[in-house]
């Protein structure tokens, strides 16, 4: 336990925006049931940036898909509070672990997909689509098809697609995994800027411990499968956080504490 750095229970907050309680997921496979996650509980306040870290296969993507209503939990619940009347889940943008682009649509058409699906005002949001394509470094590639792009370019297209409708909740599953180191650093800073400006609520899965510390208000550390929440760590560092901050002693303490938790749960 690192003094004054980690706490086992999150700080009491106002009514949570997302409340995950006793969530469990079992997959029934040909070879028998797999308990992916077991009794996971945590809550997220509006406007918070939360990272989820944990060993490969511990159920992070499963958890995110359940929050995005793409998968049904086996038991437990996910509640959204403070939504407009009639809404049972917030407007959300998702970035999946794989880019999941439509191969017959160009970069621009893929980014514009949510505009069509959600029936948003075309002129305004298409302008936003062009700005985001530039932001993710794909200006000049608007008319290319996914098969003509590298893996990192496809992933950047899917990040622009998730942001185009200006959703209040962003679910991001290892969004920077396919990017080269420099682009990854730039995108990390851009994401922090977008989040600080727009006050979106972000749930961010990453395998990079420094990335989770740099970006988050809190880091949820999961254990190996069947996974539980090991610890939730408040990251009490001033913002905006720069890449140069990653060399500070305070930053290093958070990183080594999380690394210690993960190495205790992972068989090496
Ligand atoms: N559709 C599925 N059917 C059966 N088992 C599944 C399915 N999806 C995931 N699993 C299993 O559930 C467990 C958790 O998978 P999940 O993809 O959520 O892990 P993860 O933490 O996202 O891993 P990674 O860090 O490698 O992306 C794994 O053991 C996986 O084999
Ligand atoms: Mg995953």
Automatic annotation (TrEMBL):
Name the CDD domains on file: ABC_NrtD_SsuB_transporters
The record ties this protein, via InterPro entries, to:
AAA+_ATPase, ABC_transporter-like_ATP-bd, ABC_transporter_ATP-bind, P-loop_NTPase
Which key words are in the record? ATP-binding, Cell inner membrane, Cell membrane, Membrane, Nucleotide-binding, Transport
- Entries under Pfam families matching the protein: ABC_tran
Q: Which residues form the signal peptide?
A: none
Q: Which SMART domains match?
A: AAA
Domain ABC transporter, chain residue ranges per copy: 18-249
Report a single Gene Ontology molecular function. ATP hydrolysis activity
Q: Which domain of life is it from?
A: Bacteria
Similarity field: Belongs to the ABC transporter superfamily.
Identification of the protein by name: NitT/TauT family transport system ATP-binding protein
């Amino acid at each position: 336990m690192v003094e004054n750095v980690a706490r086992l229970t999150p700080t009491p907050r106002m009514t949570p925006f997302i409340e995950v309680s006793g969530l469990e997921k079992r997959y029934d496979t040909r070879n028998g049931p797999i308990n992916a996650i077991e009794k996971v509980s945590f809550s997220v306040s509006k406007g918070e940036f939360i990272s989820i870290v944990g060993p490969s296969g511990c159920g992070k993507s499963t958890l995110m898909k359940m929050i995005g209503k793409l998968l049904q939990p086996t038991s437990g619940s996910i509640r959204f509070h403070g939504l407009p009347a009639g809404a049972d889940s917030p407007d959300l943008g998702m970035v999946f672990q794989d880019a999941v682009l439509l191969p017959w649509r160009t970069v621009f058409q893929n980014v514009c997909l949510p505009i069509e699906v959600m029936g948003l005002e075309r002129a305004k949001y298409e302008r936003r689509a062009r700005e985001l394509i530039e932001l993710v470094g794909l200006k000049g590639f608007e008319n290319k098809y996914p098969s003509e792009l590298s893996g990192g370019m496809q992933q950047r297209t899917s990040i622009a697609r998730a942001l185009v409708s200006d959703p209040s909740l962003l679910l991001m599953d290892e969004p920077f995994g396919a990017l080269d180191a420099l682009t990854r650093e730039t995108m990390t800073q851009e994401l922090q800027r977008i989040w600080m400006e727009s006050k979106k609520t972000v749930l961010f899965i990453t395998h990079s411990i420094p990335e989770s510390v740099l970006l988050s208000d809190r880091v949820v550390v999961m254990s190996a499968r069947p996974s539980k929440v090991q610890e939730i760590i408040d990251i009490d560092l001033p913002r905006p956080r720069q890449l140069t901050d990653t060399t500070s002693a305070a930053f290093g303490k958070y990183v080594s504490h999380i690394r210690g938790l993960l190495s205790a749960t992972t068989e090496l």
